[in-house]
Amino acid sequence: MVGLPARGKSFISQKIVRYLSWLSIKSKCFNVGSYRRQGAPRPSAGFFDASNKEAYRIREQAVAQAVEDMMNWFSDEEGVVAILDATNSTKERRKWILRLCRENSIEPMFLESWCDDKDLVLRNIADVKTSSPDYKGIDPDVATADFLERIANYEQVYQPLDTTDDRDLTFVRMINIAQQVIINKVETYLESRIVFYVMNLHIKPRYIWLSRHGESIYNIEKKIGGDSSLSERGLKYAKKLPELVRESAGDRDLTVWTSTLIRTQETAQHLPYKQLQWKALDELDAGECDGMTYEEIEEKFPEDFKARDEDKYEYRYRGGESYRDVVIRLEPIIMELERQENILIITHQAVLRCIYAYFMNVPQEESPWMSIPLHTLIRLEPRAYATHVTKIKADIPAVSTYKGKGTSRVGESESDNDKSLHVLSSLNSK
Ligand code: ATP
Ligand code: F6P
């Protein structure tokens, strides 16, 4: 990363890591600020003055340690994408990084966030900096003044990337979020994927609502897949949904995304918003097992049943899909979600788990086992370093379709697992 303080470098880094990890690309962020805090826990602005020799030594030590750990991570843990999250504000520093990367056969790409919108910088400071560990116990106004001085110190030495001097470097320059993006020598597939992703990011406040369809006839019959209609109780949920959404969204305008299956469209039928159907939101395809109960699957395909319990993320139904397959087909949905503002998605158990896993950074071993009960509206609020979750229960009874590990019966242990949603939400902060 390259950029002055409070330009969203950590924000962008964390998002890239979350996105790539969700796509099973091993990624990690090395935040130099946390290394620096070991030597200088709560420095004032003067610490960032380039002429402060002792401070400079501590800062160089911090970046050297971060880079060493990063190189070890590449070699010992077979990491694929590391992000060195620091200001990396001088040509000299970037030259040093470039050299180390080349020596270690690492392909570097520089991503600069440039922003001259003073109001936005002030908002960023209020949003995340005054509450950072650097200013623990300090009055927010004093912290803001000090942080502005810190930025001024960086500005003394800051050298932006430029298309003349740096024309041999692979770099992306994002100007005022993504108002203008300069792309230089981006050559590999992975680099271009990252560039495309960051170009789609925005920071406007917004919500994303997620809901499974209402209880379906197949849910009652304990059958998976299919294209059945809603049960009586499912229809009640559909009727109540506009009120639940209004209570949570107020008079915001939003767009509803459903799958192409009858049960999600019946669930959306009373919602007074624009609606869009996505094939990519259809439920995980159970192939030959479509329309069967888990008990029937265990009886007819005992080895498959066991294999799925052992590795639910990777297991692909005969003639159908795995969770990994679903994640891959959901990628355009995630990209579009990043671009959009207020969206309500009505989809299915497995698909919703995958979308939730992206926003909440849930690891692959856990995401297929998360409990997402019927008749519950989930509201996600993406914030700078975390996504806040609110669950709104409709108070309309429904069967549980949750199947725990090692059993073919549904409904057992759902209440225990239900808690995981809350636990995960509180863990997902910087
Ligand atoms: P520091 O160098 O002090 O670590 P930083 O550049 O890493 O600062 P962040 O901590 O990521 O800055 O700042 C987060 C804030 O930046 C959030 O409020 C977020 O909304 C905002 N933000 C995200 N992307 C951008 C961007 N491209 N330009 C400006 N601000 C952004
Ligand atoms: O039971 C409802 C359902 O949406 C099925 O159609 C689907 O096969 C299943 O949930 C996915 O959940 P799991 O991956 O836990 O079997």
UniProtKB/TrEMBL annotation:
<dbReference type="InterPro" id="IPR001345">
    <property type="entry name" value="PG/BPGM_mutase_AS"/>
</dbReference>
<keyword id="KW-0067">ATP-binding</keyword>
<feature type="region of interest" description="Disordered">
    <location>
        <begin position="403"/>
        <end position="430"/>
    </location>
</feature>
<dbReference type="Pfam" id="PF01591">
    <property type="entry name" value="6PF2K"/>
</dbReference>
<keyword id="KW-0547">Nucleotide-binding</keyword>
<dbReference type="GO" id="GO:0006003">
    <property type="term" value="P:fructose 2,6-bisphosphate metabolic process"/>
</dbReference>
<dbReference type="GO" id="GO:0004331">
    <property type="term" value="F:fructose-2,6-bisphosphate 2-phosphatase activity"/>
</dbReference>
<dbReference type="InterPro" id="IPR027417">
    <property type="entry name" value="P-loop_NTPase"/>
</dbReference>
<feature type="binding site">
    <location>
        <begin position="212"/>
        <end position="219"/>
    </location>
    <ligand>
        <name>substrate</name>
    </ligand>
</feature>
<feature type="binding site">
    <location>
        <position position="263"/>
    </location>
    <ligand>
        <name>substrate</name>
    </ligand>
</feature>
<keyword id="KW-0378">Hydrolase</keyword>
<dbReference type="InterPro" id="IPR013079">
    <property type="entry name" value="6Phosfructo_kin"/>
</dbReference>
<dbReference type="InterPro" id="IPR003094">
    <property type="entry name" value="6Pfruct_kin"/>
</dbReference>
<feature type="domain" description="6-phosphofructo-2-kinase">
    <location>
        <begin position="1"/>
        <end position="205"/>
    </location>
</feature>
<dbReference type="InterPro" id="IPR029033">
    <property type="entry name" value="His_PPase_superfam"/>
</dbReference>
<dbReference type="Pfam" id="PF00300">
    <property type="entry name" value="His_Phos_1"/>
</dbReference>
<protein>
    <recommendedName>
        <fullName>fructose-2,6-bisphosphate 2-phosphatase</fullName>
        <ecNumber>3.1.3.46</ecNumber>
    </recommendedName>
</protein>
<dbReference type="GO" id="GO:0005829">
    <property type="term" value="C:cytosol"/>
</dbReference>
<dbReference type="GO" id="GO:0005524">
    <property type="term" value="F:ATP binding"/>
</dbReference>
<dbReference type="GO" id="GO:0003873">
    <property type="term" value="F:6-phosphofructo-2-kinase activity"/>
</dbReference>
<dbReference type="GO" id="GO:0006000">
    <property type="term" value="P:fructose metabolic process"/>
</dbReference>
<dbReference type="InterPro" id="IPR013078">
    <property type="entry name" value="His_Pase_superF_clade-1"/>
</dbReference>
<comment type="similarity">
    <text>In the C-terminal section; belongs to the phosphoglycerate mutase family.</text>
</comment>
